[in-house]
Backbone:
């Protein structure tokens, strides 16, 4: 079985908390030790390129700003050939305070992965969210799991569990 590389960037610890929960839930389904949890800080393209199954977690700050470690990683990511890789995204944002930029980081990175040949998995429905616009939205779907731990934290656990069930299937695990 192929290992899953779960990369995340965090400043406040919220994305790290969700990343750890995703790892726990995935490993409950496929076996302990099958997910490598890696903070994106100081990682190189080679660290990510060795995985064919990827989960990428990132927050969106303020008016669509990227988390600093992910912003620094863009040049590394542009050098990765994502052909034959399946990539699932999850992100955190504030759908009320920054309603026009909700989880924009996912949209930016999803576009980069697709441009480099990757296959997106784990798309989710926008029903139940109250944002105005998101670069992560395509029609009635987000390019991954969008979470708002500021305003809808009571839905985080349920949304995460459903999404993990979905991605495990889409990964073919």
Residues:
């Amino acid at each position: 079985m192929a290992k899953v590389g779960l990369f995340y960037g965090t400043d406040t610890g919220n994305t790290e908390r969700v990343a750890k929960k995703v790892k726990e839930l995935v490993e409950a389904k496929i076996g302990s030790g099958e997910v490598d949890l890696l903070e994106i800080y100081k990682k190189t393209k080679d660290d990510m390129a060795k995985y064919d199954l990827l989960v990428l977690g990132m927050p969106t700050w303020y008016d669509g700003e990227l988390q600093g470690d992910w912003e620094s990683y863009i040049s590394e990511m542009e050098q990765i050939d994502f052909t034959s890789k399946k990539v699932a995204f999850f992100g955190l944002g504030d759908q009320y305070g920054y309603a026009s930029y909700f989880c924009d980081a996912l949209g930016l990175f999803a576009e980069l992965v697709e441009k480099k040949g990757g296959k997106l998995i784990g798309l989710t429905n926008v029903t139940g969210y109250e944002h105005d616009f998101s670069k992560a939205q395509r029609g009635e779907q987000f390019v991954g799991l969008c979470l708002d731990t500021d305003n809808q934290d009571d839905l985080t656990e349920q949304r995460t569990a459903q999404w993990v069930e979905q991605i495990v299937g889409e990964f073919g695990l």
